Amino acid sequence: MTDPFNPYLPEVATILETVQETHNIMTFRVRFDDAAKMAAFTFGPGQVGQLSAPGIGESTFVINSPPTRMDYLQFSVMRTGEVTGKLHNLVAGDKIGVRAPLGKPFPVEDMKGKDIVFVGGGIGMAPLRTLFLYMLDNRADFGKIRLLYGARSPQDMAFSSELPEWTSRKDIETTLTIDRDAEGWEHKVGLIPNVLLEMAPSAENCVAITCGPPIMIKFTLEALKKLNFPDEQILTTLEKRMKCGIGICGRCNIGTSYVCVDGPVYTYAQLKALPNEL
Amino acid sequence: MAAKYISREKLPEWLKALAAERRVLVPVEEGGSVVFRAYDPARAPVFGSDATAPPKGAVFPASQELFSYACGKEGEDANPTLKLEAHTEATPTVVFGSKPCGARGFLIFDRVYMGKKYPDPYYIAAREATVFVTMACDRVENTCFCHWVGSGPADAAGSDLLLTPVDGGYLVEAVSDKGAPFLDSPVLADGAGKTAEAEAVKAKAREALGEAPDIADAPKALLGLFDDLEFWRDQSDKCVSCGACTYLCPTCYCFSITDEGAGLAGKRVRSWDACMHFQFTLEASGHNPRPTKAHRLKNRVGHKFSYYPTLHDGLIACCGCGRCVKSCPVSVDIREIVQNAVAKAKA
Amino acid sequence: MSRLEELKTRIREALPGLECVIGWQQGYDALHNTPLFMRSDADVDKLTWGVLNVHNPAVYLPTMAGKKVGVVVKGCDSRSVVELLQEKLIDRDNVVIFAAGCDGVVDLTKVKAKLAAAGVSAGNAEKVATDGKTVSVTAGGQTVAMPLAEVCADKCLRCQFPNAVLADVFVGDPAPQPTPNPTGNADLDALDAMSVDDRMAFWRYHMDRCIRCYACRNACPMCVCRDHCIAQSREPHWLSQEDSVTEKLMFQVVHAMHLAGRCTECGECQRACPMDIPVLALKKHLNRTIHDLFNYQAGVDVAAIPPLLQFKLEEDNIKERGW
Question: Fewest C-beta atoms under 10 Å: which of A86, A253, B233, B287?
C-alpha cells in the first residue's frame, strides 16, 4: 500500500513465483511481507505500481492480476532497458519494493451492463488482463465480452497457460491472432486491426479497450472508428517515463494532464483533447 | 504588529543570535558568485544584489536521501532480507536575505508538494522548519520581471519577515504568523519612525520596473502554438539544452530518483532534474516524447505560463527573478518567448 | 562599406542556398549579445560584429548535421570548426564559413567587476560603446570606460589566431597578429604554483557551488556525446546524482580527459558556467601536456589527426621501450 505518510517509501514484498512468458516478458507474483498490509490492500483494475529492486531503481507496471484474486499481485515486465533488464534477474524468494496502487483505474462502474471488446497486442495484454479477469469474476455484470489478443508469433504470446481457458469458455468470445502463419497455429493469422474489422463488433452499447504497441493502437483506433465506435467508448492506457508516480516530479505530463495520476487510462475523446505529445 | 528597525551595525548581532538556535543561510560571495551558505560571522553577507543561485536548496536540496536500503540474508535457510529506512526530519533553518522572488518560488512548490492526495513528507518537513527573512529590493535590474507574474520588489508572499533597506539599516516587518515571534528579539528597535521611508523605497523600486505587458492570454496562446514546431524552433535555436535555467529557477521543482549505492547497501536519492535534458523524458524503448530542444523549451515555457496556471487558479509558475535570462549561457529570454507567443496568437 | 555591412551583404547572397547562417545579435540588454540564426534578410539586418560576440557559434554545427548551414566566426571559433572537420563530426560541404578579423571580445565577468568597482551594477546596463581599444559601458546613468585589454577574455590575451584559420568568405582587412600576453595564462600559472593539497582544496572550494547544470558541457563545441553523456547515464553508472564535490569534480575530470588534444581553448565551458567556476584551467593543463608530448595544437589544420585519435607504434616523445 502506498504509505499515506511517505509516498516514496515502497512496501517490501517477496517474489512468490516468476513466469517466463516470452523471450522478453517475465511475470512476477508478489506478496507484501506485512500480512496486515496485504490483507488491507485494495485497488481497481488498471491501476499501476512502481516496482523496484534495491540498487536498480524503479519502473512502472500495471497490476495485471484482478482485484478479485488477491493471493498475490502480478506484474509482467518486458525487458527493454536498465531497470527491466535487471528485474529479469530476480528469482522466487527475492525481495522487491512495491509502491501501489498509483494512477486511476478503468471506469468499471460505467461499463456495467455493456458489451465489452478487448483488443490487446503483445505486452499490451497486461493492462487488459486485470480488467478482463475482473469481468470474468463478475461475469453477470457485463454483456457480451470479446477478447482479441494478438502477437507477432505464438512464442510472443504472454499468458499462454491461460489461453486454453480463455478460448474454450463459452461465456466469452476469444480470438487469438499472429502476424504471420506458424506451424501448429490453430487460430487466426493477420494484423490485429484487420482481424478486428473482420470480427466487426457492434458499437451499440459497447466499450472497446485497446492496448499495445503505438503503431498497433494507431491502426486499431482507425478500425474502431470505421466500426462507428464513439470516441467516448474507446479506452486505452498510456505509458510515459515516470519517477515519482504521484504527480510531482514533472516528466509524464502531456500539457496539463499527468499520466501518473490522471492516467494511465484515457478515453480516445480525452486523448484527442490533449496536446499532441505522445 | 508594529514594525521594528535594525541598524546595519546591529545586523551581525541578530544573525549571531538566530544562528545560535538554527541553521542560518545567508547570501555570500564565493568565487565571483553569490550563494547561500551557513552564516559565518567572518564572511560578510551580500544583501545588495540578488544571489546568483536562489535559496531553493534550503527546502529542496540539490540531492537528498529518500531512504536507505540494506539487503542481506538471514538464518540457515538464507532467505533474502530487505530493510528500508526513511528519515524525513528537517533542520530548523532561517533563510536570511533572499529577495522576495527567491522566497516566492516556494508558493509554486507548495501547490504541488503539499497536495491533498500525496503530500510530500520531505518537502513539508523542510518547508515548515524554514523561516524566510526576506530583503525587499531597493533597486531593480534589466532582467527583473516580477511585476509580470503578480509579484513585486516588496512581495511578501512566501516570506515570514520582510526587511526593507532604509537609511542606516532596515525596517523589519512580520508578514506571516511564523515570522511574528521573531520581532520579539531584543536586538530589534522600534521601527515606527521608519515606515514611511520604507514605503517610499518599495514604491520607488516598483516604479522602476515600469508597466508589465498584458500576458493574460499566455495560457491559451502557448497551448494554441503546441503544434507550431517552426515557432518553437525559432524560440529554441540558440538554446544549448543545459540545465542552468531550471536549476537556478526558484520555481522549477522537477526531480529525478535514482538508486545510488554499491553492493548490498545504498540509498534512493532524489535529485534536481531538468526538463531541458534529453534524458528527462527518454523512455526505455528509446522513444522520447520530447526529442528536440524545441519540444523541451516548449514544455518549460508551457508549464510555467500555461499548464501550471491552468491547474492552479491562474498562478504563474514563475517568480520573475530573471535568473534564467541572466545566467543562460546564450541569453535565452523567457519574457521574449512569452510575448512572441501572445503576439503570434493575436496575429 | 564597413566590415559588418560587407559581411551582411555576403550572407544575404549566400542565404538562399543555406538552412540558416549563425551569428550574433544584441540580446536582452546593451551588454549582452546572443546567438542569431539568420533565415531571412530581416534577420541579417540584426547581425552584429564586435567585442560582445562572446559565444562560439560552432557549438551548433554538430546538431545541424545533414543541413547546409553558414556560420560566422572569430579566429578562435574557426578553430572549433576546423577541429570538428578534423574529427569528421561535420561535413565540409555542409558548412560555409564567414569571417572577419577579430579585435578581441570581452569577458563579462571582468566587465561586471569593473562596473562594480565603480559602484555601478551591470544589471542596469543601458549602452555599450567601443573603439577597439576601450569599452565604455553606461549603466544606471553613469558611464565607465575600461581598456579592452583589461576586460577582454583571457583567451584574447594569448590569441594566436585573430583571423579565421579556415574561411570561405573573409571580409575586411585581417587583424594584426597580437603579441601574446603572459597574463592570459595566469590561471594555469597560479595552479602550477600550488602544492597538490592546495590545488585539491582550490578545486573543492570552487566545485562546491557547481549546480550540475552541464552548461560547461553543452556550450562546448567538442562535447558531442551530449544526450549520451556518462554524467547522467546509468549504464555505465560512473557518476551518482548525489550533490557532492567529489561527483562534480569527477565530471570535470572526465570532461577534461575527453577533450585532451581536442580542446581549442575557446573558453566556452568557463564562460557558460553560471556559477563562474574556472573550469577551463583543467583543459588547458591537459592541452599543455598534449603539446609537450605530441607537439600538437587542436583545430589549426583540417588534415591533421588529433594525437589521441591515432596510433603510432612508437611515439616520438614517449620512449616507453627505453623505460
Answer: B287
Question: B53 at the C interface (CB within 8 A)?
Answer: yes
Which cell numbers in the block locate residue A174?
476469444
Residue A257 within any structural domain of the chain: no
Higher pLDDT, C132 or C126: C126
What element of type H or E holds B39? none
**Structural domain boundaries of chain B?**
4-346
Beta-strand runs (E) in C163-307: 169-171
Domain-located, residue A244: no
What are the grid coordinates assigned to B200, written together?
517610499
Instruction: Quickly name the fold that domain C108-151 has.
Output: Nuclear Transport Factor 2; Chain: A, (3.10.450)
pTM above the 0.80 mark? yes
Q: Are C108 and C148 in contact (CB under 8 A)?
A: no
- Residue in chain C nearest B291 by alpha carbon: C227
Q: Which amino acid is at B109?
A: F
Phi/psi-derived region of residue C260, left when phi > 0, alpha when psi is between -120 and 50, beta in every other case: beta
- Contact of A57 with chain C, judged by CB distance below 8 Å, is answered with yes
Give the whole-angstrom CA distance, residue A8 versus residue A59. Answer: 13
Backbone angles phi, psi at B52, to 5 degrees: -60, -50
Answer for the pair A108, A131: CB distance below 8 angstroms, yes or no.
yes
Whether A187 is covered by a domain: the verdict is yes
The partner residues of A96 in beta bridges, in order of sequence, read A13
Q: Where are the domains of chain C?
A: 1-105+160-178, 108-151, 181-323
Residues A114 and A95 in one domain: no
Residue of C59, C121, C208 lying closest to B49 (CB–CB): C121
Give the distance from residue C227's alpha carbon to the nearest chain A alpha carbon, in angstroms.
16
Decide if C235 and A82 are in contact by the 8 Å CB cutoff: yes
Are residues A92 and A117 both part of a single domain?
no
What residues have CB less than 8 Å from C233, skipping those under 6 apart?
none
Amino acid code (one letter) for C148:
L
Q: List, for residues C263-298, the tens digit of each pLDDT value.
A: 999 999 999 999 999 999 999 999 999 999 999 999
- Contact by Cβ (8 Å): A45, A126: no
**What CATH number is attached to the domain comprising A32?**
2.40.30.10
In this complex, is the C-beta atom of B112 within 8 Å of any C-beta atom belonging to chain A? yes
- Summarize pLDDT for A54-74 with one digit per residue, the tens: 888 999 999 999 999 999 999
Q: Does A79 touch chain C (CB under 8 A)?
A: no
Report the C-alpha gap between B312 and B326 in whole angstroms: 27
Q: Which domain holds residue A128?
A: 108-237
Measured between CB atoms, which of C123, C241, C278 is closest to B63?
A: C241
Tens digits of pLDDT across chain A (278 residues): 445 589 999 999 999 999 999 999 999 999 999 999 999 999 999 999 999 988 889 999 999 999 999 999 999 999 988 889 999 999 999 999 999 999 999 999 999 999 999 999 999 999 999 999 999 999 999 999 999 999 999 999 999 999 999 999 999 999 999 999 999 999 999 999 999 999 999 999 999 999 999 899 999 999 999 999 999 999 999 988 899 999 999 999 999 999 999 999 999 999 999 998 88
Q: Which amino acid is at B32?
A: G
Contacts of B243 in chain C (CB under 8 A): 211-215
Q: How many domains does chain A have?
A: 2
Environment class of C187 (CB within 10 Å of its CB; exposed 0-12, middle 13-18, buried 19+):
middle
Using CA atoms, how far apart are residues A215 and B248, in angstroms rounded to an integer? 40
ipTM value greater than 0.90: yes
Quick check: B102 pLDDT over 90? yes
Given A102, A122, A155, the domain boundary residue is A102
Q: How many residues does chain A have?
A: 278
Query: Which run of H or E residues covers position B311?
Result: helix B308-311
pLDDT for position C236: 85
User: Taking Cα atoms as reference points, which of A130, A162, A164, A167 lies closest to residue A147?
Assistant: A167
CA quadruple C130, C135, C140, C143: dihedral positive or negative? Answer: negative
